[in-house]
Amino acid sequence: MSDRAPPEYVFSFNRTVDAIMGEKCLMDAGIPVMVMPMPAYMGSSCGICLRLEPENFEEAKKLLKDTYSRILQVTEDPEGKLFREQ
Q1: Residue 79 lies in domain
Q2: Considering the domain boundaries, does residue 2 fall inside one?
Q3: Sequence-distant (≥ 6) Cβ neighbours of residue 23 within 8 angstroms
């Protein structure tokens, strides 16, 4: 049995307004979301991203389909967090 936490997902956006509207859209749909700074090493974006739990991924992907620029899967291992593009 694995002690690893289930992956979380990060949605990045090209424009700050898209991230803000995405947060509002998810909150209105009852989906918990966390706004966080986009890690600089992940490339260019508006500077903020939305982080979600795995059970909300598919619904969030549908709701944000016209606004996000990238989706990253976040997993943790003993050496830290790993970000993989989806």
Answers
A1: 8-85
A2: no
A3: 33, 35, 50
- What's the pLDDT score for residue 25? 95
Closest CA to 37 of 67, 64, 71, 10: 10
With respect to residue 31, please indicate whether it lies within any of the assigned structural domains. Answer: yes
What pLDDT was estimated at residue 24? 96
Does residue 45 register a pLDDT over 80? no
Residue 35's pLDDT band, with cuts at 50, 70 and 90, is very high
The CATH number that applies at residue 67 is 3.30.70.120
**What's the structural domain count of the chain?**
1
Chain segment 46-82, per-residue pLDDT in tens: 788 999 999 999 999 999 998 888 888 877 766 766 6
What is the DSSP code string of 10-74? EEE-SSHHHHHHHHHHHHHTT---EEEEPPGGG--SSSEEEEE-GGGHHHHHHHTTTT-SEEEEE
